[in-house]
Amino acid sequence: MRHLLLPALLFGLCSLAAGQSDEMQIRDDVPIETYLALLAQVAPPARDGAEAYMAAFKARCGRAMTTIELRKAFAEGSGNPTLMAMIRAAHQKDTAAMQRLSASITCPRG
Question: pTM of the entire structure?
Answer without folding.
Answer: 0.74
